[in-house]
């Protein structure tokens, strides 16, 4: 009996071993098949007059663009999978056609975000009429007039930021740059766009709004992103796994952030809806209010005669608890209207777009100033010359031309968005090459802005490149950190306003420096990792000295 049991165990063990072997071989065979199928020879671009390159196992846009530009010149094509042909070009004449002159043929991006969260329906990802309608509705909120009206909130946040720098100077502690600057940019977007307080500038711990903004995206390594792109791909299969199979692990957006923002936005929208229906005078004249006004106005216009408007308690009650089953109707693209779900999507995208890019720019700018003390002194002198009052006016900021050059040189070297894309609607020929309908165009912003053809010694930080005389000699498309054409970044003016205001308030009080205790140390360099946006391997910490010390 005992022997039989032992034999049974052995048989069971063999079965288990065989099972594991079969499973391992199947997974290995699948992996080899997937890798080989993605590396197969493909020459489709050649019939369109474009060099077709195998990019091997390179999958992420930034490394692919870097490889193609370095090894194969300004324009080359590759295929990402059986269906999609991708053209990478840094040819500025061709880019002028794609981004500006023939914009109608390239109005869409190819990007979609693998997420169930409303973020994936934000302006950045919208196409055709939906994009036009929402862009038109959002644009007025970023006009110069609107920005002038919100500048007191920006001054207020910049003053608080400056106090954090001064406190570091007093105590001798190094300043954790990204942590503090992230708090600054979220405080501004929360207050100016949504009338919400996100007040943790200088605190060790972030407030909820800041915390959930900073953790909106799952931060994953390059290796993880690479493996995911090999096995799951970029687009439809991953979307299918997230939406249909419900694998939340693959979702790009964290569930907690998504839930948090949906809840607070639903409540804010409901409160503003009530105000909107009761009076035409608004306490908040911000981004959220303008979208809610459009929503209410279009509902009023559509309501059948005699039907009552919803009352205050109905609206507030309905929106207190987030309920994903309540979906609004998709509006007709040709009309000036927006649904509640769309407002939430635009709000989430705006919060993250404003946080990630602005804090990256301000961080790199302060780092480059610490690395280049002579440039920092020149910026300081200019602030003393131009800004007479406690808070700089819009006119003062416009006169800070050298500071503008420093900021542009920072954005040249460290563009927060390193690659942008467009998708061709129809087949068109430009000179010797044809771009077929459906082809994706990847525009390697970082490679263009570090191309020796446009910038001598491109790795060197030199704000003089952006002096009016030097700028006049260069093709404007050689500098496109905010993109270009009708689909240009909507928040560009706000970004300059935020960064310049912070630089005025901080640099007039303190100097930032690198020394033996900072990260990186004086004489060392930062290591950049590109996962869509540039990340620094070790967060920067700067030494701060009070002016006059
Ligand atoms: C230094 C700061 C910033 C940089 C470098 C930056 C960069 C960019 C780039 C490269 C694009 C794509 C443009 C194209 O494809 O041609 C973009 C789009 C966009 N950005 Fe920014 N951005 C910044 C700040 C902001 C801010 C502050 C906001 C909002 C408050 C914002 C909101 C958006 C939106 C909504 C889009 C999509 C526009 C569309 O598709 O119509 N960005 N940004």
From TrEMBL:
Sequence ranges of Polar residues compositional bias: 321-336
Annotated TM spans: 15-36, 223-241
Coiled coil residues, start to end: none
PROSITE patterns: CYTOCHROME_P450
Sequence positions that bind heme: 489
Region feature Disordered, mapped onto this chain: 302-336
Entry keywords, A to Z: Heme, Iron, Membrane, Metal-binding, Monooxygenase, Oxidoreductase, Transmembrane, Transmembrane helix
Cofactor list: heme
Pfam family, one: p450
InterPro entries according to UniProt: Cyt_P450 (IPR001128), Cyt_P450_CS (IPR017972), Cyt_P450_E_grp-I (IPR002401), Cyt_P450_sf (IPR036396), Cytochrome_P450_3A (IPR050705)
Gene3D superfamilies cross-referenced by the UniProt entry: Cytochrome P450 (1.10.630.10)
GO molecular function, one term: steroid hydroxylase activity
Similarity comment: Belongs to the cytochrome P450 family.
Function: Cytochromes P450 are a group of heme-thiolate monooxygenases. They oxidize a variety of structurally unrelated compounds, including steroids, fatty acids, and xenobiotics.
Protein name: Cytochrome P450
Organism: Elysia chlorotica
The organism's taxonomic lineage, starting at the top: Eukaryota, Metazoa, Spiralia, Lophotrochozoa, Mollusca
């Amino acid at each position: 009996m005992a022997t039989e049991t032992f034999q049974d165990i052995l048989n069971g063990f063999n079965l288990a071993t065989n099972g594991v072997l079969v499973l391992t071989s199947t997974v290995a065979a699948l992996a080899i098949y997937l890798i080989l199928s993605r590396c197969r020879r493909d020459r489709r671009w050649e019939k369109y007059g474009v060099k077709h390159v195998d990019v091997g196992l390179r999958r992420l846009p930034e490394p692919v663009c870097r490889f193609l530009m370095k090894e194969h010149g300004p324009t080359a094509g590759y295929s990402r999978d059986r269906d999609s042909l991708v053209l990478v070009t840094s040819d500025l004449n061709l880019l002028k056609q794609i981004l500006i002159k023939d914009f109608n043929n390239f109005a869409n991006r190819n990007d979609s975000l693998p997420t169930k969260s409303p973020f994936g329906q934000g302006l950045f990802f919208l196409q055709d009429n939906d994009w036009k309608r929402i862009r038109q509705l959002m644009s007025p909120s970023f006009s110069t007039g609107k920005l002038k009206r919100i500048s007191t909130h920006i001054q207020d946040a910049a003053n608080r930021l400056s106090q954090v720098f001064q406190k570091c100077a007093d105590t001798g502690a190094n300043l954790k740059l990204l942590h503090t600057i992230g708090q600054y940019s979220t405080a501004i977007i929360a207050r100016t766009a949504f009338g919400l307080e996100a007040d943790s500038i200088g605190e060790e711990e972030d407030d909820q709004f800041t915390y959930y903004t900073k953790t909106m995206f799952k931060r994953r390594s390059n290796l993880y992103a690479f493996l995911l792109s090999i096995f799951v791909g970029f687009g439809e299969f991953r979307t299918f796994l997230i939406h249909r199979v419900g694998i939340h692990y693959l979702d790009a957006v964290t569930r907690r952030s998504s839930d948090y923002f949906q809840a607070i936005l639903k409540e804010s929208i409901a409160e503003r809806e009530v105000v909107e229906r009761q009076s035409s005078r608004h306490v908040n004249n911000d981004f959220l209010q303008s979208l809610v006004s459009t929503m209410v106005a279009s509902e009023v216009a559509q309501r059948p005669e005699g039907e009552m408007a919803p009352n205050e308690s109905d609206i507030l009650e309905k929106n207190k608890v987030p309920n994903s089953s309540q979906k609004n109707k998709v509006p007709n693209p040709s009309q000036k209207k927006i649904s509640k779900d769309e407002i939430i999507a635009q709000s989430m995208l705006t919060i993250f777009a404003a946080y990630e890019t602005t804090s990256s720019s301000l961080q790199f700018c302060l780092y480059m100033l610490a690395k280049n003390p002579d440039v920092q002194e020149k910026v300081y002198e200019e602030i003393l010359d131009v800004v007479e009052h406690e808070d700089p006016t819009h006119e003062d900021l416009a006169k800070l031309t050298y500071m503008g050059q420093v900021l542009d040189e920072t954005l040249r070297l460290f563009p927060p968005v390193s690659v942008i894309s467009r998708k061709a609607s129809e087949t068109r020929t430009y000179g010797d090459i044809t771009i077929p309908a459906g082809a994706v165009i990847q525009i390697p912003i970082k490679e263009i802005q570090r191309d020796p053809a446009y910038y001598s010694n491109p790795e060197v930080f030199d704000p003089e490149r952006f002096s009016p005389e030097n700028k006049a000699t260069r093709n404007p498309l050689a500098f496109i950190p905010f993109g270009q054409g009708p689909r240009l970044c909507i928040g560009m003016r706000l970004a300059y306003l935020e960064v310049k205001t912070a630089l005025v308030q901080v640099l007039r009080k303190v100097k930032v420096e690198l020394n033996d205790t900072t990260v990186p140390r004086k004489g060392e360099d930062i290591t950049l990792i590109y996962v869509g946006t540039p990340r620094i391997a070790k967060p920067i910490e700067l030494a701060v000295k009070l002016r006059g010390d």
